[in-house]
Amino acid sequence: MDPKQIEEIMDIIKDFFPENTSIAISDKEEYLYYQPSKKVDLKIKPGDPVKEGSAAYKALTYGQKISSYIEPDVFGVPYYGMSIPLIEEGETKGAITAIFPQKPSPFLTNYITIKIDDCWYPIKHNQVIYLETQLRKTFVKTMHREGYHRLNLSDLELFLASDSFIRCHRSYIVNIDFIDEIQPDSHSTFLLIMKDGTRIPVSQRYASYFRRSLGF
């Protein structure tokens, strides 16, 4: 991964991770970039090997998004990491890791509260069909209600169970339980037909990750 690629990745980091987050970028063996935050600093330097047991190591090993608490024996301090593998043509090339001092928890784990007109409604995560970026907010769709949450899609992704929800596009996260059909689309991408009839694209960026996560 050359400096230009790293620069391009950093240009879009704001679309994927909340502010005030430590960020690490690695290839398959070592760290290439590290930006600490005021909240947590793992003292990573470019050229340091990816340590076994770290969030980045797990994402590289399993080839899928990892959200995990990491014990202090890895870096000397505990942290909560979310690491996303960088996949090109089906092969894992590296990983981007967001680093937090602890798992963010601004609301109850199993609920997401949406606003409809002037009222708020708590919705269980397992009732959510999909989430979509709209007008700097997140549109949340269930079988019976639809409304908006104040956090953006990347913020909300941290609180959704990775065994039920999967990001398939820059603008979409879907609940796997509500996928009715997966259709092939152009340029090695897919089209998801959800159980409510909504048609959601799987972008080329996420196609390999999506296939690997669902095992097809």
Automatic annotation (TrEMBL):
* PROSITE patterns per record: HTH_LYTTR
Q: What is the protein name given in its UniProt record?
A: LytTR family transcriptional regulator
List the molecular function annotations (GO) for this entry.
DNA binding; phosphorelay response regulator activity
Recorded hits in InterPro entries, A to Z, give: LytR-like, LytTR_DNA-bd_dom
Read off the PANTHER family from this record.
TRANSCRIPTIONAL REGULATOR, TRANSCRIPTIONAL REGULATOR-RELATED
Q: What's the domain of life for this entry?
A: Bacteria
Quote any Pfam family the record assigns.
Answer: LytTR
User: Which positions fall inside the HTH LytTR-type domain?
Assistant: 112-216
- Show the Gene3D superfamilies listed in the entry: 2.20.25.10, 2.40.50.40
